[in-house]
Amino acid sequence: MKARHSILVVEDEPKIRDGLRDFLEFQEFTVTVVDDGLAAERIVDAKRFDLILLDLMLPNISGEQLCRKWRQQGRTTPIIMLTAKGQESERIAGLDMGADDYVTKPFSLEELLARIRAVLRRTDPARCVGQTFSFGPFCVNAQSLKLTCDSAETCITQRQADILQLFAANPGRIISREQLYEKVWHESMDGIETRTVDMHIARLRELLKEAGCKTELIETVRGAGYKYNE
Amino acid sequence: MNKRFWIICSVIGSGLLTLSVLGLSSLGMHEKGLRAERQQEFMDVAKQISFDVKKKVDTFLQTEQGRLYTDYQPYYVPEVGNNTAALVPSPLANLYSNGLANGYFQLEADGQLISPHFAEQPMQQAMQAKQPVNHSDYFDNVKQNLLPSLASGQTVATHRVEPTEREKMEDKYTLDKIAMGRDRRTRTLKTDSVNAVVAKSESSYQFAEDRESKEPAQKKQVSSKSKGTKAAPRQNVYQISNLKERQQTTTQVLRQRRDNYEVNVASNTAGASEKPVSEAVEIYNRSRAAPSSPLQQEQQSSFGRSSQSEQKDARQSEDMSQQMDPEMDLMMMVPATIGVDNDASKKNEQQLEQADTVQVRIEPFVPMTVSVSNGNNNGLFAGQVFLLRHVQIEDRHLVQGFQLNEDELLSQVAESARRYLRRGMGYEISKLERPDAAFAAILQFDFGEVVLNLLEQDAGYIQAQVLRMRNWFYGILGVVWLSVFVAMLALWKNLNQQVQLSRKKDDFISAVSHELRTPLTSIRMYTEMLEKDWVKTDGKRREYYTTMRTESERLTRLIENVLDFSRIQRGKKRYDFTVGDVNECIGEVADMMRPYAQRAGFVLEQRFEVLEPFAFDRDAVVQIVINLVDNALKYAKDARDKHIIIRTRAQKGYAIIEIEDHGPGIPRSQQKKIFDAFYRCEDESTRQNTGTGLGLALVKRFAEAHHGFVEIVNAKPTGALFRIGLTMQ
Do A12 and B534 touch (CB under 8 A)? Predict the structure, then answer.
């Protein structure tokens, strides 16, 4: 069964908000709608979304402020800005704030759908590295869940394959435990005291060592997270 | 824009600052100029006063120089041709004080002192007419102070500064000393006659004459005494060189009839001069009757004269006169030599003339300063100043002179000062320069010098002028700075207004763009969903159609508002005033909007009073009501009391329309601004309600078009009440 992507719609105009909800639900997305900036901030802190459709002119907290704040917090959730501000400078400013795409009103629903899909694809690690990718001296097949090194094969779990895929898509970049949890477990860590991520990383290191890896491919960065050294 | 403004401010400020500094510097220069100008004024005044005083003194001395020697004697015989005149008193007999002269006297070589003031009758008249003159004191003074000085051989003291110090004089000095006997410390050349006098009596007075210089007495040498009284080095002293240019006076040589001369001598010798005029006349008559009288012989013997020596003296005198400067004033008291043609007779007559006349040689006046015996010198000079002249009649030597009247000299200076002093100037004559004098000039006379101190009576005169100028300058500077400041402030305010307006317009464009795009987006979105059949149920389908209609109406209202405002701004808005019932019109609008209000949970109430029909623009009234109700729906959406009340009534010639809601109301600080075009209470990026900022501006314009008004009052307990008055005419 195909996993449904969750989309948050932040729009103050009720007619557009309702229309978008109907349309996205019809396209089999899980849709959450909020009508002002404060509500959006609260719900993003509480729940993980695959995509946010963000209007800029919002009551209480503007869309620009929200976008800037989320990016400063390190949230990588893709954001598509939906706004009536269509000038070039406004588009550039929106993209510079950390938006992944920018759609001006009035828009075509088909075009919006295409942009949503494109953004989701771009931000999916599997789309970046493919189903078969290299991880240090190993070759990983995320579909068959096999780890191969010098013709020696080792079986891995789906969770381990997802973790390796995420690291392979972001070599040299520090990935926090929260990000790992969101991307792999598709849940937010806010308010949760868990060592799940650490346990999985420790298990993965042992597996790689048993498979013949002599170097530490996944490095712990104290106070920040983990980093994949190619 | 701000940067450009500050650049302009900096440039103007720098320019003003530079001008201010230049102005201050100019003020300083102006002050210096004023002081220099004032100093020049003092110099000019000093020069004018000095010239004037010098002229007066010179004129007086010249006049005195021309005075006959007989004027110094109590009586004399006037020269009236060949006829013998009667003996008359001297014209100076009752002129004890005559201009700068005080007390005339004549001194014989043997020390005998006579004066014209001894004449009996004139003195009595003078005493009756004026203040009694105690001339006996004066002559006692002459005898006690002047005669000993002449006899002592002391160097004469004056106030004159050492010539070699003051200036490199080319002509040095000429008169000079009056020395006694053999005690001669100065270079002198004595005439034979003087030698004869010296040989005759050691107590006689000698008159030394500097023949080498052959110049009339002009300058005096400063004695060691004078150096002691010399003023300290002066500042601001203008050397008035013209004072040094003395009137050229020369020795006069005259001739007098011998018999007249002899009568004069007889009448004015010792004893005779102190006798009443009747006795003098008697002596005179006796001498006329018997030329070889014992008196005449006595006179001759008293002077040690013989007929040979007389002739010899006459020849010497003639030689002397021939040797004299041809420019000398040779004047005959007796005109006996005029009218002779041939040489023989001329020579004859000259011999006869020499036998019948005596030669009178009068030298120029020389000053002499004599110390006061008691040491109390309150005068201007080092001592009492006497002006003396040497008179030689054949071998007889006389000193004639008078004392300088210092009071008169001061009054002459005062008179000149009054004439020439300018505004704010004062003066004082003193021996020394006053330290507080604005300018001090030395008035140099032959008999000494005094300092003319010119005083600034108003010491703060220039300071006051400068202060006045400075006050003006500061005033003008202040006004200029203030003007520039006000101008820059106005410019800044204008710029700010422009920026605000520009921002408002940007916001308006953004708002209009948003307001246009929002319904368009809805319409397009729902249209696309319907078109592509992305609709789940029929209910949704109907809802989409309704939404499309309402959004179209919203779009229409928005466009109407923008177009109306644009027309009003351009003056193109046309109103169609038609007489009708405004309640009916408002009721229709209320009915039209009621479904929207109900969907939003509001109750739209109508409370109309009866209004007489009047002329109004129907579209404008509809627009007013729609905009106000629409605002109430938007801003009171969260209110507890969701009643919107529309009232109408007549009041003082106005049809009053009120729309009341119970939302949050409008803060007092914003109540005046909300009717401005493009004004919105909320920040554009975080506003909670849609709108362009034109709705209330249009309401105000429409009300004004009806010669009415619009106002906002707070509703109770909360909310806003908009009151519109339309003129019922």
Answer: no
Structural domains of chain A ordered from first start: 6-121 (3.40.50.2300), 132-228 (1.10.10.10)
Specify the pTM: 0.47
Say which amino acid occupies B291: P
Closest CA to B46 of B423, B364, B389, B451: B451
Angle made by CA atoms A79, A85, A87, in degrees to the nearest 5:
110
Closest residue of chain B to A57, computed from CA coordinates? B685
Q: Regarding beta strands B252-257 and B330-332, do their DSSP bridges make them parallel or antiparallel, or are they unpaired?
A: parallel
Q: Are B589 and B622 in contact (CB under 8 A)?
A: yes
Radius of gyration over every alpha carbon of chain B, rounded to an integer in angstroms: 60
Per-residue model confidence as pLDDT tens digits over A11-23? 988 889 999 999 9
Contact indicator for B126, B133 with CB cutoff of 8 Å: yes
Residue for token pair 């302009």: B8
CA distance A52 to A63: 11
Kindly state whether A26 is in contact with chain B, defined as any CB-CB distance less than 8 angstroms. yes
Cβ partners under 8 Å of residue B397, min gap 6: B109, B193, B194, B197, B205, B207, B390, B391
B685 touches chain A (CB under 8 A): yes
Instruction: Flag whether the ipTM exceeds 0.90.
Output: no
Question: In this predicted model, what pLDDT tens digit does every residue of B236-286 receive, in sequence order?
Answer: 443 333 333 444 456 778 887 787 788 777 777 644 444 454 555 565 555
Indicate yes or no: CB of A22 within 8 angstroms of CB of B536: yes
Q: Treating both helix axes as pointing N-terminal to C-terminal, what angle do B582-599 and B618-635 enclose, rounded to 10 degrees?
A: 30
CA distance, residue A186 to nearest chain B CA (Å): 29
At B478, list the tokens.
């202040």
